What does this fold into?
Amino acid sequence: MLTFNQFNQIILFIGLNMKIICIYNASSTWVGELNYLYKKLFENKSCSLCDLSHGMTGIKKEWKEMESISDHEYSLLHINEVPANIPHNLIKKLPCVLKQDIENFELLIRPEELQICNGSIESFKILLEKKIKPDG
It folds into this structure.
């Protein structure tokens, strides 16, 4: 009989309940938030992942819906929140999306690909599912 931990590892291995780690090109500190707001308003620079997940009043309803019906577990992290166990060579360019299978991390979506989504959660979902598939 499988233990709960063994069962979870098997589920992760076959791709269900995969951990999807989304890393913003922004810091969660108040200075980081002000810096991001300044760049967005006055320099027309933004984080394409922020544009996907957030609107002017917070996290987008569509993002929440995507998470709620997904088979995967999502983590939204700022630069300063990235755990030490994530290899730094995977997050050289931000924003990005990683997947975690047990203890292995893999870069799924690069900044250029997030930019192409242009804030569309539907485009992001299609891209993500394509990347998650073994032949993607």
The two ends are 33 Å apart (CA to CA). The beta strands are 19-23, 54-55, 58-59, 73-77, 96-101, 104-109. Residues 18-132 form one domain. The chain is about 45% helix and 20% strand.
